[in-house]
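Marked as duplicate of an earlier ticket. Keeping the data here for the record.
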Amino acid sequence: MILTYSFILMFNILLVQSATISEVRLTGGAGPWEGTVEVYTDGSWGTLCDYDFDLKDARVVCRMLGFGREIQFFPRAKFGQGVGKSLFSYLSCSGNEQNIGSCGYRKSTCSHSQDVGISCVRTNRLETTEAIRLIGGTGPYEGTVELNVNGQWGTICDTNFDKHDADVVCRMAGYTSAIQAFSNAHFGHGNGSSMLYNVHCSGHEDHLDSCGSSGWFSSTCTHDNDAGVACLDSDRKSISQGVQFVGGTGPHEGTVEINVNGEWGTICGSYFDMNDAEVICRMAGYSRALQAYSNAHFGPGNGSVILSTLKCSGNENIIDSCGSDGWYKTGTCAHSTDAGVVCLRIRLVGGAGPFEGRVELNINGQWGTICDNSFDLPDAEVICKMAGYSRVRLVGGFKQWEGRVELKVNGQWGTICGYSSGFDIDDAKVICRMAGLSTSG
């Protein structure tokens, strides 16, 4: 008899029940989208206990209320104590139910001090964030991150906030990608509360709701830990939008300045070497580098020091493809350590056009020539590439030795104006030689 009674008692404790919840409401919040959860069943209102209540349970409540989705749940009567009795505890919703009466639960023995509250997205949107802005930067593309949730602005805690998270933030703000992620309120304190903590995005998401985190409104951070970002202020995929050299004897040499979002800045000379200089010269339209300098050899540059510890292999086309410590992560670098380069200049002199002539190189400010001893077609191929040309191609003919002439200059293919502009047999012979074809017969 005692054994039977114990079994029945245990069964009643573990029993998963169902009920008909005809109405639900939220009280004590800033609006109907948030507050203490109150449900109407069996002719009276009551509350839900916070035992084992989670976001899946909150999702079902928000769905019943007609809102897009849940944002967060709150234990211990955060929005104040509800009315009636504490009715149910240990809700076990999957999140897909249309009514919490379809979820498993137990009869509650809780007091109203354990009433659960929730916050829902106040519209039928699926995204929590209604707006995003960046404040405190030099333009709308950078600053402390502020998110608008249900009409209130708040910030993101910088704990574990990185470039992947910044990419998603920038995408939400309408930019292509992030240049850098910042911590410790780099752009100054934001407004409202710190509402999101421990964000961990892969970088491919379109919205922070798709990223992992410790939850909305769960942050204990202060505004000293506000996260910030700098976004790429265009639809370009490359961060560096221009390069120039200042302080040298000509445009081919000087302190390196990089343009990012319309602002010119320099590169820290620490660990700057010939591989890095090769990429810089290539970006500036030169064939290769002659020398790499540090310690502001050509004098200090302008703006901020925006890049440090560049780690190029020398084969990259832009420095975005090189490793580094990150944009704006320059530590103690100052303009006294600015990097500089000297790029190789080459010209073809005395020919019928800029594509042919005597080869002249500029080394340390002096022009000179190349001796023709053993100079052959492979050597000429290298010279042409250095001068910005590649082989000529003939397009649209019936055979490989005929067709429309196209030249590649500085990475772009183009054509040569025809007979009416003076193009004749002598010009054609040069083209044929450039294409590696015979002019005899």
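See parent ticket for discussion. The chain is about 15% helix and 30% strand.
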